[in-house]
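Design a sequence for this backbone.
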């Protein structure tokens, strides 16, 4: 399955890309996160969220979406 990954905020700055496509076989959000950290080691130090098809999911969730968004840490008050 091909997935499109979009990077937002400081994650875009860290990776140097706005989006990328992957066709590797990932079965969970966590396996995708681990792969992205091997490509971009600086992501290891960031507590980013991953959303698939516009819904934030946990690392244990099955990866079945085709549009993946990497979201930087939220701040607010």
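Sequence:
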């Amino acid at each position: 399955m091909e997935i499109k990954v979009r990077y937002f905020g400081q994650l875009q700055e860290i990776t140097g890309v706005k989006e990328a496509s992957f066709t590797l076989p990932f079965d969970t959000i966590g396996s995708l996160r681990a792969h992205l950290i091997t490509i971009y080691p600086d992501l290891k130090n960031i507590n980013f969220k991953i959303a698939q098809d516009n819904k934030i999911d946990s690392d244990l969730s099955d990866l079945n979406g085709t549009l993946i968004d990497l979201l930087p840490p939220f701040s607010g008050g």
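The chain has one domain: 3-71.
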